[in-house]
Amino acid sequence: MRGDPVSRMEVRFRGALGRFALDVAFEVPARGITALFGPSGCGKTSVLRCVAGLQRLEGRFALDGDVWQDGRHFRPTHKRPIGYVFQEANLFPHLSVRANLLYGHRRTVGRGVPETIREADVVALLGIGHLLDRAPLNLSGGERQRVAVGRALLSQPRLLLMDEPLAALDRMSKDDILPYLERLHEVLSVPVLYVSHDIAEVERLADHLVLLRAGRVVANGPLAELQSDPSLPIARLPEAGVTLPAVVEGFEAAYGLTTLALDGGTLQVPGELGPPGSRRGIRIAASDVSLARRPPEGSTILNALPARILKAEPPDGVQMTAVVALGPAGTGARLLARVTRKSWDLLGLAPGEPVFAQIKGVALVQPGTGTDDPPD
Amino acid sequence: MIWQPILLTLQLATLTTLILLVIGTPLAWWLARSPARWKEAVATVVALPLVLPPTVIGFYLLILLGPDGPGGWVASLWGARTLAFTFPGLVIGSVLYSMPFVVQPIRNAFEAAGDRPLEAAATLRASPLDRFFTVAVPLARRGFLTGAVLGFAHTMGEFGVILMIGGNIPGKTRVLSVAIYDYVETLQWTQAHILAGGMLVFSFTVILTMMMLEKRIGRGGR
């Protein structure tokens, strides 16, 4: 993937920003979803606003060689081919849902921009057909946000910017809208910059991750790579974990267990997760993985895979987060394991040592194709 | 005879309101959105007629419009001596003293709508002018309604300033309020009753209509 001549997005901004200075520079692939992740107030929204041209800081932005800002050159917001989804939907209260949806569409397709994203498709994709004649005031939070996403998409963007689109929603509305965003990801080819401070959301949606802290880039890379780097702050979160691609190998009907193959081993997971060969995303939390010197005997834990320790941090904490790579040679997928420093020392563990990773729980992160699609 | 001041007053109020909407809207927009600090000084100048006695405004207007002021120079362009005691002079005076009643509600409405809808419009390819007319103005429509009605009504009722700069020339500057004063002075009670009663009914109708319209607009938006 990384060697492909993929088009890229070049982002560089610096300037004063309230209490701290923003100084970011990164390049990310201009495809899939790139999450800008960090604690509140770390400057991620400002980066997004700078990309949109809503805020002007010194710097440079180019999408696939098309320069939007560089030195004194600054393309105003309304001339940038973007879609922007705000934290609060920010619909026009004086227009109907349909007029909201078509506001940007009229100004692009109406002026000769090729229509690659069609109204009927967006309405179906987001399940907002029954809302078209309503006023934004009469929609629920989740509905409003779906309309806002549709409005942004129909302006035929070459880049979709989403500023914590779920942050203002309650748990239920979030669960209601996430499947739509996932489906969007599967169906559309528009690259997305997605700002969030919720790691669960990022793991569910993002392909690529830019970690920000106090106005600076801490790390930038594919999601799986950053998740399994114990030196990064996300690996220290209580809910740290990794998301991995898996393929269904078979179903053991007598016990109701599905066998999933991942890079470097297989797992047995409760439930029938699809026909053999179908792809599933799974998430394994660091706190669900423990390490053993020998293959466990007399244990109720079903999944114990040979692996090798790559590293562990921090060396002086009560808890350590170890990265292990699956397979006897340690060449497979990477997992995080949360262990106490005491057991680490008792077992005499160290980088390079062979171990068995005992996996207590596996969660699915993405609905598989065709099995449990979001409702219309 | 009795219709002449009524017609003249309606002409004056309509023209004044239209002019105020045209020049007051960009002024209100600037006051609502400019980061300039000295804009409050401008806002204060606009608001002065709210507190100054009408005779004071009238006095300065008389000097401005008179033969030795800029008004006199303008009048000389078509060979007249002064703008004072003329209908154009009344319009200029009315525009100035009714300005706060139009600019203030529109400015408030622009401020209440805030940046965010305009930012959304910008990300949807609307140029500054486009988003002004398709987003800012529709969102501020209550302010426009209030401003227009208040400006119109206030121009209809002004007395002191008119008397100072317009006098009492029938068919030219003799507006309703002055005519009523005149009728009372000359003990023509019937005519005074007709005009005063008419103003009462008119004012009641205007305010009632405005309140009902506001309610209806309010339901549609925001």
UniProtKB/TrEMBL annotation, chain A:
<keyword id="KW-1003">Cell membrane</keyword>
<dbReference type="InterPro" id="IPR050334">
    <property type="entry name" value="Molybdenum_import_ModC"/>
</dbReference>
<dbReference type="InterPro" id="IPR027417">
    <property type="entry name" value="P-loop_NTPase"/>
</dbReference>
<dbReference type="InterPro" id="IPR011868">
    <property type="entry name" value="ModC_ABC_ATP-bd"/>
</dbReference>
<protein>
    <submittedName>
        <fullName>Molybdenum ABC transporter ATP-binding protein</fullName>
    </submittedName>
</protein>
<keyword id="KW-1278">Translocase</keyword>
<keyword id="KW-0997">Cell inner membrane</keyword>
<keyword id="KW-0813">Transport</keyword>
<dbReference type="InterPro" id="IPR003593">
    <property type="entry name" value="AAA+_ATPase"/>
</dbReference>
<keyword id="KW-0547">Nucleotide-binding</keyword>
<feature type="domain" description="ABC transporter">
    <location>
        <begin position="6"/>
        <end position="239"/>
    </location>
</feature>
<dbReference type="InterPro" id="IPR017871">
    <property type="entry name" value="ABC_transporter-like_CS"/>
</dbReference>
<dbReference type="Pfam" id="PF00005">
    <property type="entry name" value="ABC_tran"/>
</dbReference>
<keyword id="KW-0472">Membrane</keyword>
<dbReference type="InterPro" id="IPR003439">
    <property type="entry name" value="ABC_transporter-like_ATP-bd"/>
</dbReference>
<keyword id="KW-0500">Molybdenum</keyword>
<keyword id="KW-0067">ATP-binding</keyword>
<dbReference type="InterPro" id="IPR004606">
    <property type="entry name" value="Mop_domain"/>
</dbReference>
<dbReference type="GO" id="GO:0005524">
    <property type="term" value="F:ATP binding"/>
</dbReference>
<dbReference type="InterPro" id="IPR008995">
    <property type="entry name" value="Mo/tungstate-bd_C_term_dom"/>
</dbReference>
<dbReference type="Pfam" id="PF03459">
    <property type="entry name" value="TOBE"/>
</dbReference>
<dbReference type="InterPro" id="IPR005116">
    <property type="entry name" value="Transp-assoc_OB_typ1"/>
</dbReference>
Automatic annotation (TrEMBL), chain B:
<dbReference type="Pfam" id="PF00528">
    <property type="entry name" value="BPD_transp_1"/>
</dbReference>
<keyword id="KW-0500">Molybdenum</keyword>
<dbReference type="InterPro" id="IPR000515">
    <property type="entry name" value="MetI-like"/>
</dbReference>
<dbReference type="InterPro" id="IPR035906">
    <property type="entry name" value="MetI-like_sf"/>
</dbReference>
<protein>
    <recommendedName>
        <fullName>Molybdenum transport system permease</fullName>
    </recommendedName>
</protein>
<feature type="transmembrane region" description="Helical">
    <location>
        <begin position="189"/>
        <end position="213"/>
    </location>
</feature>
<keyword id="KW-1003">Cell membrane</keyword>
<feature type="transmembrane region" description="Helical">
    <location>
        <begin position="6"/>
        <end position="29"/>
    </location>
</feature>
<feature type="transmembrane region" description="Helical">
    <location>
        <begin position="41"/>
        <end position="63"/>
    </location>
</feature>
<keyword id="KW-0997">Cell inner membrane</keyword>
<keyword id="KW-0472">Membrane</keyword>
<keyword id="KW-0813">Transport</keyword>
<keyword id="KW-0812">Transmembrane</keyword>
<feature type="transmembrane region" description="Helical">
    <location>
        <begin position="148"/>
        <end position="169"/>
    </location>
</feature>
<dbReference type="InterPro" id="IPR011867">
    <property type="entry name" value="ModB_ABC"/>
</dbReference>
<comment type="function">
    <text>Part of the binding-protein-dependent transport system for molybdenum; probably responsible for the translocation of the substrate across the membrane.</text>
</comment>
<feature type="transmembrane region" description="Helical">
    <location>
        <begin position="83"/>
        <end position="103"/>
    </location>
</feature>
<comment type="similarity">
    <text>Belongs to the binding-protein-dependent transport system permease family. CysTW subfamily.</text>
</comment>
<feature type="domain" description="ABC transmembrane type-1">
    <location>
        <begin position="6"/>
        <end position="212"/>
    </location>
</feature>
<keyword id="KW-1133">Transmembrane helix</keyword>
